[in-house]
Amino acid sequence: MGLQQFEERLERIVEGTLAKPFRNNLQPIEIGRRLTREMDLHRRVGVHGLIAPNAFTVTLSPDDVERFANFIDALSRELADAAREHARIEGYSFVGPVDVQVYEGSRLRAGRFAVTAEVVEGPDAGAFAEVVLPDGNRVTVGEEPLVIGRLPECDVVLGDPNVSRRHADVRRTEEGYFVTDLGSTNGTRVNGTPVREQQLESGDEITVGSTSLVFELS
């Protein structure tokens, strides 16, 4: 399911003139399959279950790098999302952020590629949380509270006029991760329910003003 969604999203990104490179050459779905296979091959047993690689290096031929140049960043993001979805399906966890880097391999022929995967711990090994923004970008929840609002000094700055200057924050405690409304004008909701403070579960939707964010826990 994850790879099918990956392929559909990439097809939308490269509609029109950019779809031409996919017809008879290297297909992005091939890279996605190799990446998830590397996750399966290099998973390891952790204290709380199976830990999967979270840092990936994709090496493409010069010809393929040139063909994918207009959407190489999108390819990296979609591959990272495919890795996260594969982890959810298989019950894997990560110990750091998922990162996919794409490089050029001067000795590779067109259509040939390599994927390497490794487990790279984040600043705090163990549970790892991110807030997914509407544009797909991700912000890590670290030691300090992650403040959401319209002020430039907030950690997550939103242009939504319905968002207060300092609207809410997401923080880690010994009991888990919590979202707290900071006295905002329009309130904070979790999965549609207004809250003052709420413990978060992976996949919860946090709505501030008219903007929805997603909380994800490895």
Terminal residue distance: 19 Å
Rounded to an integer, what's the Rg over CA atoms?
A: 19 Å
Strand-pairing-aware structural class = alpha+beta
Tell me the β content: 25-35%
Structure annotation, total helices: 4
Helix proportion range: 10-25%
Low-pLDDT segments: 15-21
Helix and strand run: HHEEEHHEEEEEEEEEEEEE
Shape, per Cα inertia axes: globular
Mean pLDDT: 86
Described by its quaternary structure, the protein is: single chain
Largest sheet: 6 strands, antiparallel
Q: What's the total number of strands?
A: 16
Structural features, described:
This protein has 218 residues and is α+β, with helices and mostly antiparallel strands. It is built from four helices and 16 strands. Helix 1 (2-13) packs antiparallel against helix 2 (28-42), helix 1 packs antiparallel against helix 4 and helix 2 packs across helix 4. The chain is globular and about 60 Å long.
Please give a quick description of this structure.
The protein is α+β, with helices and mostly antiparallel strands. The chain is 24% helix and 32% strand. Strands 7-6-16-15-12-13 form a 6-stranded antiparallel beta sheet, with no helix packed on it. A 5-stranded mixed beta sheet has the order 9-8-10-11-14, with no helix packed on it.
